[in-house]
Amino acid sequence: MNDTGNKNRAVESECGPFHLSQLRGAQSIVFTKAPYLLSAASVAGSKEAQGPLGKCFDLTNEDDLFGAETWEEAESNMQKEACVLALGKSHVDPKSVRYLFGGDLLRQGIATSMGVEDLQIPIFGLYGACSTSGEALALAAMSVAAGYGDYMLAVTSSHFGSAEKEFRFPLGYANQRPLSAHWTVTASGAFLVGSHLNKIHSDKQHQRKSQFRHIRIAGVTIGKIVDFGLKDSQNMGACMAPAATDTIYRNFQDLGRTQEDYDQIITGDLGYIGQSILFDLMKSRGYDIRKKHMDCGMTIFDQETQDTHAGGSGCGCAASTLASYILPKIENGEWKKILFVPTGALMSTVSFNEGASVPGIAHAIMIEHC
Question: What is the pTM of this model?
Answer without folding.
Answer: 0.88
